[in-house]
Amino acid sequence: EEAAAVENAPLLAEALSDSQALPGSGPYLERPGGTLCIAARHGPREALEYLLARNVSVTPYAVTTAVIAKDEWILDLLLRSGWKIDEPLVLTTPSALALAVEDSALVSWFLERGASPNAQCSLDLTPLSVAVQFSSVPIIPSLFDHGGSVLHGQLLHYAVRRDLPDQADVLDFILSKQPQINHVMYQEHPQSYFSQRMFDLGTPLHEAAEQGKLDVVRKLLESGTHPLIRDSCGRIPLQRAERTGRDSVVAYLGPITASAELPGRQFTEDKETTGWS
């Protein structure tokens, strides 16, 4: 389709007016660039081209709309119009690739255009983090093939959180990348740690124990995790399992914890939560 010409402005204005009258358009109009979002969601493509040709800013809402619709034509247009493919959608949401990780074709579109699997937001959360928790298994190696790294995104924690039948395969794959198995979540990202430490930040073993994932607990211990590391609230993994009533994990972890030697200085020492901070 050709870009909208100036003489088409009345027709396009009418099309936009019709779009704005659609049910559910109100919340979009209240946002910056709301008309662009409506055009991306409902309007003819000429309307979207017309707006972008007149330097209407590309908004996260328009990008999100295009990703959810899996509309590669609109995404390409937004990219040509100044959208930076790795910019966060909102403060605590990474780039648009994070919304696409369950669709292999859309993932390929992003990777072919240079999207980074390691793009962060204000937290150490990346598209690869989301993929490790939710994507189909073949997508995850493809993200590593395009620069994905266990140095970003707390990947082992997200592998523990995965609640799909193939969790063991994903966990083994991430462990093969040699992540820091004994690191508390966000240990290498102080901004994230101090903003989130009131939420029981611990090691992957803390999370597996709390969720009652005995097979994951076993795998982590076999891989060298330490059972006496304390989380940001001062608890060890056994205490997290006891608190949530995970009896099988408590029975397994109890003797191992009792016989373990204390680690050296703990990361959370002098960094534990002080309530809501």
From TrEMBL:
Keyword terms of this UniProt record: ANK repeat, Repeat
Gene3D superfamilies in the record: Ankyrin repeat-containing domain (1.25.40.20)
The keyword rRNA-binding is annotated on this UniProt entry: no
ANK repeat feature ranges: 200-232
Name the UniProt record assigns to this protein: Uncharacterized protein
Residue intervals passing through the bilayer: none
Pfam families given in the database record: Ank_4 (PF13637)
